Each structure stands twice: as structure tokens, then as C-alpha cells.
Amino acid sequence: MQVWSPPAKTRGRDVVAANTEPDQKADSAGGRLTVSRSGDIATITIDHAGKRNALTAAMWAQFAPVLAELADDPGVTVLVVRGAGADFSAGADIGDLDAILTGESDGGVMTEAEDALAAFPKPTIAAIDGHCVGGGWELAGACDLRICSDRSTFGVTPSRLGIVYPRSGIERLVAIAGPAVAKHLLFSGELVSPQTAAAWGLVTKVLPAEGFWDAVGAFASLIVSRSQFSIRATKEIVDAVAAGGDGVAEAVARWLATPSGDRAIGVAAFLGKRPPEFTWGSGTP
């Protein structure tokens, strides 16, 4: 096995890498993040056995450095975030809540992880099976796309704990589902079905639990096969539209000025009735 050397600010944590099986392990007391690779697809797995993948403060803190490594890796085109075993994540580890919520930003290390995931420059997919609750939803909501199995459950539960949900999490929930749905979830703390989650716009696709992971892999591979020039430009522009302000014009102008041979490749492939083999982004972060 190869040893992954984390950046200076993460040294001291036990992070191990290999080439095929889950290959980077960001260990913490009682849980870990695992990073695996399959071709151009990287997967971050939330792994906290016995606690439905609830995240400790140390696990939350690992997201930003791990995401920074993957963002700079030219071999990574698409990122999938999932949970180990039968659940995505039950959210913050209640036993570690004080440490999780303590920090410079509202929401502490939980908000820092969410913001790092939302800012990841490449397409992200939350693959949700089982419980996706509280901070687990916060991570899923920070991804570009959310795909779930038909045995998933969703909830946002601060009203059960007597806490104020982090501002960034509320803003993102309102942006995704609207004020009424956000208030329903936050006020009630109820768990809802995948069908309800889809109707409310929380997820983009509901798939059968049987064969779910194969379907997720196939969809991620489909994204890999498309023009990364188009996808990366679209991601930045859509995010700028959602954020409001003057960022939209700047993003459009920057991407229009970015050289790419993908349009010529796509048009030639269309006219030749063959699948395109896009080249933009190959070998660069």
C-alpha cells in the first residue's frame, strides 16, 4: 500500500492510500473517511460503523484537505460521496456535538466541510442509500446532484435537539427546495420517503435499491464521457446564477475566453455518427 502524504495542516492523522480498494483512509476516533478510485471517478465514503455513519468533529475536519487533494488531481473527473454499509449518514455525532459546532464559522467544522464540498470545481454526486439526516443532508445538499435508492429516508432535525441549524445549511436547503419545504423539514424534524424527497426537489433521481451502486457507477461514467469543458463551465455559471450578484457575467466571459477543442470534436462526432472523445481537461486539474 502507498502512504498518502497529507498537506501540513493535516499531518498527524492516519491517512493511507492504495490503488484499487478504498485507497485513502482519513482515520479519526470512532470513524473515518475513505477515498477510492475507479478510473476517472473518485469516491469519498463516510464510514462510522455502528452509528449509521454519524460524523465526529475529526471526520468533518478531514473533508476540506481531502477535497483539496482531489481537486488538484488531474486523474479525477467526477466525485461521488456515499456512506459505508446501509446508510449515507445520520449526521453529526451527537456525542461530539460541542466540538463539531465550535469554530470560527457558524456551524463550525460542519459548515467548513459543507462549504468545501460546495466549492469543489468538478461535478459531485451524492449517492444516498438509507438514512440521510441532519448533517448528512447538509453534505448531500452541497453536492451538484443527489441520487437515492428507494429505501432512503431524509430529515433535517435541529428541532429535535434544540439547536439552530447552520446558516449555510438553511440557505442551501431553501435554495434547493424552497422556504415552505425547508420550514416543514426544520420545524417538524420528520423523516420523509425518497418519493417525497423527489417531489420536493431534494433529489434528482430515485433508483431501485437492487443494483443501486451499479446504476450510480454507470451514471458517473456517463458524466465522465461528456465534455468536461461544457460541464465545468455550466457548473460555475449555474452556481453563479444561484448565488446572484455580478458573478454570472464574469463566469460567462471567462469561459467564453477559455480555449477548447471540444466543440469541434463534438460536432465532428455528431456528423460522423460516432461517440465523441473529448479532450479538454485531460491531464489537468
Automatic annotation (TrEMBL):
First and last residue of the signal peptide: none
One BP term from GO: fatty acid beta-oxidation
Molecular-function GO terms, alphabetical: isomerase activity; lyase activity
A Pfam match: ECH_1
Keywords linked to the UniProt accession: Isomerase, Lyase
Matches recorded under Gene3D superfamilies: 2-enoyl-CoA Hydratase, Chain A, domain 1 (3.90.226.10), Lyase 2-enoyl-coa Hydratase, Chain A, domain 2 (1.10.12.10)
Family: Belongs to the enoyl-CoA hydratase/isomerase family.
Protein name as annotated: Enoyl-CoA hydratase/isomerase family protein
